[in-house]
Amino acid sequence: MKIATWNVNSVKVRLPHLLAFLEDTKPDVLCLQETKCLVEEFPLLELQGLGYRVEAIGQRSYNGVAILSREPPTEMIKGLPGYANDEQARYIEAAFRGGDGEVRVASIYLPNGNPSDTDKFTYKLEWMDHLLARAEALMQREIPFVFAGDYNICPNDDDVYDPVAFRDDALCRIESRSRFRALLNLGLSDAYRLFHRETHRYTFWDYQAGRWNRDEGLRIDHLLLSPHATDRIVYCDIDKAPRRKDRASDHTPIWCELAA
Fold first, then answer.
1. Rounded distance, CA 125 to CA 101, Å?
2. Which end of the chain has fewer CB atoms within 10 angstroms, the N or the C?
3. Prior bond to 115 cis, omega within 30?
């Protein structure tokens, strides 16, 4: 099972790039973030034409998450469990048949949290606390699962081009990083780091100030795997090709492959 995640920064604007990515890489499951459209506005026909089913929750102009899959999910959860009063479209989870049983995949768009001296940062930390609770609940079931998406967190200074400049940014604040580490301490694995120890490998480059051309980026898109999923991982990598295109998203996909 090949699972990819990509913050497309508007599914309608980036549709040609999305279709090309699906045709070129053929993931079994693709998690999208920042789709920025209502469900009824999602480009279903084009995606169905490539053999993909779509499950999504959305908002007009911002947020929005989706899961595209070749096989139908056996169960869907829309919204972060335990956080019923969250009105933003940031979490969707699906169960699929895979290998000897079930594999669960969540598409996550974690709040940015900036400015970090406002309620936006409080919301980010509260959201992460609920995500931790969901991870704990799934861990107790001892099933393979993948938490995929834009976490808006650089796990450490090796994941940001200028650690000093980002010291007080919500993406690098110790409160954010400690909650990310709490997920790892539960037993989840950062899939990219299982195969790549190199520093300064990124999934996001800001549109401003020529960040892409200077490779001044951030690693904020992650695949976190439960122990049972980690046991089955074959490889994980960042695909920079979509970021090179005209009118590209400021993020690029990251993917992993699980053995049957």
1. 33
2. C
3. yes
The mean pLDDT value for 55-82 works out to 96
- Check if the beta carbon of residue 223 is closer than 8 Å to that of residue 232: no
Cα distance between the two ends of the chain: 7
**How many other C-beta atoms lie within 10 A of the C-beta of residue 128?**
23
The overall average pLDDT reported for the chain is: 97
145-177: per-residue pLDDT in tens?
999 999 999 999 999 999 999 999 999 999 999
CA trace torsion 16, 211, 107, 257 (10° rounding) = 80
For 149-164, letters b (16+ CB in 10 Å) and e give bbbbbbbeeebbbeee
pTM of the complete model = 0.97
Q: Please check the confidence at residue 98 and state whether its pLDDT lies above 90.
A: no
Residues 6+ apart with CB under 8 A from 78: 55, 57, 91, 92, 93
- 2-7 and 29-33 beta bridge pairing: parallel
Per-residue model confidence (pLDDT) at position 68: 98
For residues 22-48, average pLDDT: 97
Q: Which CATH class is domain 2-258?
A: alpha beta
Residue that the structure tokens 């993931």 belong to: 27
